[in-house]
Design goal:
Length: 452
């Protein structure tokens, strides 16, 4: 647990930095541009999440190959993996930049975005998608450093990006008056600068990561292994986003006040969800390293301890949101009393069930670390189905409350699914492999997978 915490704490801190600058965005937009502009930015979340989820999932999945090679002390293999990561990410990012920018407005209109929010939402989405390469490559270099076991350096540059984002928000929105376009520009510019700086520091601290012509020449041979890991995780993120799009469409149909309510609570929600995700990311790297080294006992013990840790964090997060969240929501929605009432309902239902998300993140990332990305993709289908059911069946039946239960239903369904699969995959892998210390007999021991 100590190792898990030491690795995860910088990521948790980094995610809190992200939430702080998003809250700064919220305060600047809400106080300078009004709650309608805040709702407009919120309307883009599901659409931008689908694109960034695909890109970031693609990167995260491929970086498992890097982490496994690092665990096996295959340094030349790590460099070849890095070359493949950069080239494949660049190709996908270039393709999605054009497609997403062209389709942003039609998709927002198809999702029944309220007319009074549509123009600002389309403007924000267009600027963000034209610059989506910036957060993608920042995430790429951060994922590579985490795969090497370094979670502190990404934190440093995330802090730089967040500070620059807030400063640029002030310049673009308060001084230059560029509205929601200025908010989007501040985001992509700050993350682009952080991506360039993080790459430079990465190769200075880890000079053996400097690519050689031989590494670039092997990209064609490397594509298969990386695409097999990257595509399923990217698809899993996009599949989850399809369910989120269904929820967004149902939310938009309830009107601007409901959109504003969800936008505010989701900004606060991130303070609690992202630390739970960080522990999950730590699990994926931990399991990948130990899988590469053949350490089955450490995998089993580490996943159990991570689950205990994340459940504890989830309970603390739930109490924090239920106690402190109400006052923060009231402060952000002083000019929208109807939205305030709905926001309070959403906060109480959603935040009371974080424990389901905590377990899901740990078990899903354990599967990812074991190299079973196709099963992680399957869990995305479960999340999508649960959210879609809430949007298509519960919202027409019980209104806004149906939206409030969409996330907890998705976490519970996917958590049960990946929990069952993790147990099956881990036991099967240990029994069928001689890589693990103890060989086939390990699964039947009292301290390993046989007792899992």
């Amino acid at each position: 647990m100590r190792l898990m915490l030491l690795f995860a704490v910088p990521m948790v801190a980094g995610n809190l930095f992200q939430q702080l600058y998003q809250m700064a965005d919220t305060l600047i937009i809400g106080n300078r541009l009004g709650s309608a502009a805040l709702g407009a930015v919120g309307c883009t979340g599901a659409v931008s999440g689908m694109v960034t989820g695909l890109l970031n999932g693609f990167v995260s999945g491929m970086s498992v190959v890097t982490a496994r090679r690092y665990g096996a002390e295959d340094i030349s293999g790590v460099r070849r993996s890095l070359a493949a990561l950069i080239v494949l990410t660049g190709i996908l990012t270039l393709a999605l930049t054009g497609i997403s920018a062209a389709l942003a407005r039609p998709v927002l209109r198809a999702l029944n975005t309220p007319e009074e929010l549509l123009e600002d939402a389309a403007t924000y989405a267009l600027v963000f998608f034209l610059g989506v390469a910036a957060p993608t490559f920042f995430n790429l270099f951060s994922a590579i450093m985490r795969a090497m076991g370094d979670s502190r350096t990404p934190l440093l540059f995330l802090a730089v990006a967040c500070t620059a984002n807030i400063a640029l928000d002030i310049v673009c929105v308060l001084w230059l008056g560029w509205g929601v376009a200025g908010v989007a520009l501040a985001t992509v510019a700050s993350q682009g600068a952080a991506a360039l700086l993080s790459h430079r520091l990465m190769v200075r601290r880890m000079p053996w990561l400097r690519l050689k012509l031989a590494d670039l020449a092997c990209i064609k041979e490397e594509m298969g292994a990386h695409l097999r890991q990257g595509i399923p995780i990217g698809l899993q993120s996009s599949i989850i986003a399809i369910g989120t799009l269904a929820v967004q469409a149902a939310l938009n149909s309830l009107g601007a006040e409901s959109v504003i309510a969800c936008t505010v609570v989701q900004r606060l929600d991130g303070f609690c969800i992202l630390p739970l995700m960080s522990i999950g990311t730590a699990v994926a790297t931990y399991v990948s390293h130990n899988d590469g080294a053949g350490e089955a006992e450490r995998i089993s013990l580490g996943v159990k301890r991570a689950a205990m840790l994340n459940v504890g964090l989830a309970v603390a997060a739930s109490l924090g949101m239920l106690v402190a969240g109400a006052g923060m929501v009231e402060g952000l929605l002083v000019d929208a009393p109807e939205a305030l009432a709905q926001a309070m309902l959403y906060l109480r239902v959603n935040s009371g069930l974080y424990i389901f998300a905590a377990l899901m993140f740990v078990l899903r990332n354990a599967l990812l670390g074991l190299g079973r990305s196709e099963l992680v993709t399957a869990s995305g289908f479960v999340e999508m189905l649960m959210r879609s059911f809430a949007a298509l069946a519960l919202v027409p039946a019980i209104g806004f409350l149906g939206l409030c239960v969409a996330n907890p239903m998705a976490w519970l369904g996917a958590g049960v699914f990946v929990g069952y699969l993790y147990r099956r995959v881990f036991v099967y892998k240990v029994r069928g492999s001689t890589r693990y210390k103890g060989g086939a007999n390990y699964a039947g021991s009292n301290h390993g997978a046989g007792s899992e």
